[in-house]
Task: inverse folding
C-alpha cells in the first residue's frame, strides 16, 4: 500500500517512469511470507493511470521465479529489462562469494529469461580479482560473458570492505595491476558484444521515453534501457 501510494503521488506530479530499487529486489515479500510479493506489486503499479514505465533492480538469480518473468512479459508497463548479476563465471569463486548458484545455473536462468520475455535485455554485474581468483578462474568469467552475449555488464574490481567476510577471512591477493588488466579485458569484450547487439537495431523504429536535452539533442531510453 505504501509503495503504491508513493508511486501515485509521483505520477500526480508528472513522473512517467519509476524504478523499484532493492538489494535483492526479487525477494520482496519473502520476509512476510509472500513469495509472489514483487509480481503482485508490479500488477498494482501497472494499473496506475498515466504511469508509462516500470523497472526494477537488482535481482538475485536464486529468487528469479517463472511467475516474476511471466508477469514482466504480460504487463505492458513493465519494461523488458532484467538486471541479474552473475558476479563471476567460476563455481569455486561463486562458492567463496556465497552466491548460492553455479555458472550453469546462471546459464539456465538466462535461457529461461529469454524464452519467457521476448526481446528482453539482460544486464549483469561482475567482480574481477576476488580473493583467490586464478587466471583460469578469471578466464571462466570471460568465457561465460562471451558466450551469453548480455546487453550490459557493470564491471568492478574487488576491494576489501571492513566488516565483510572477505575482509575478515580472505587475503586480497590479486594485485591492482592484474585486477585492472582483467577489467579491461572484459570491458573490451563487452564493447564488441554490445556493438553487435546494437547493430541489429539499425533501421528499426523503437519506443523511446524522452528524458531531456543534452548538447542540443533530445535524449531518452528504449524499453530495454538503451540510450
Result:
Amino acid at each position: 500500500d505504501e509503495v503504491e501510494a508513493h508511486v501515485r503521488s509521483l505520477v500526480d506530479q508528472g513522473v512517467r517512469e519509476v524504478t523499484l530499487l532493492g538489494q535483492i529486489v526479487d525477494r520482496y515479500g519473502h520476509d512476510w511470507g509472500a513469495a509472489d510479493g514483487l509480481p503482485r506489486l508490479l500488477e498494482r503499479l501497472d494499473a496506475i493511470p498515466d504511469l508509462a514505465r516500470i523497472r526494477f533492480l537488482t535481482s538475485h538469480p536464486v529468487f528469479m521465479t517463472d511467475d516474476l518473468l511471466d508477469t514482466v512479459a504480460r504487463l505492458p508497463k513493465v519494461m523488458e529489462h532484467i538486471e541479474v548479476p552473475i558476479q563471476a563465471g567460476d563455481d569455486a569463486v561463486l562458492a567463496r562469494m556465497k552466491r548460492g548458484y553455479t555458472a550453469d545455473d546462471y546459464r539456465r536462468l538466462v535461457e529461461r529469461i529469454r524464452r519467457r520475455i521476448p526481446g528482453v535485455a539482460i544486464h549483469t554485474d561482475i567482480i574481477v580479482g576476488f580473493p583467490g581468483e586464478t587466471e583460469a578462474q578469471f578466464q571462466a568469467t570471460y568465457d561465460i560473458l562471451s558466450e551469453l552475449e548480455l546487453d550490459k555488464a557493470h564491471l568492478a574490481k574487488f576491494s576489501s570492505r571492513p566488516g565483510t567476510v572477505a575482509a575478515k577471512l580472505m587475503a586480497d591477493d590479486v594485485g591492482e595491476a592484474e585486477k585492472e588488466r582483467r577489467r579491461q579485458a572484459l570491458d573490451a569484450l563487452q564493447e564488441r558484444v554490445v556493438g553487435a547487439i546494437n547493430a541489429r537495431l539499425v533501421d528499426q523504429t523503437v519506443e523511446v521515453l524522452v528524458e531531456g536535452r543534452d548538447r542540443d539533442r533530445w535524449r531518452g531510453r528504449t524499453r530495454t534501457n538503451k540510450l
Notes: The chain is about 40% helix and 20% strand. The helical segments are 2-12, 37-46, 66-74, 91-97, 103-116, 135-148, 165-169, 176-199. The beta strands are 17-21, 53-57, 81-83, 121-128, 152-157, 208-214, 217-222.
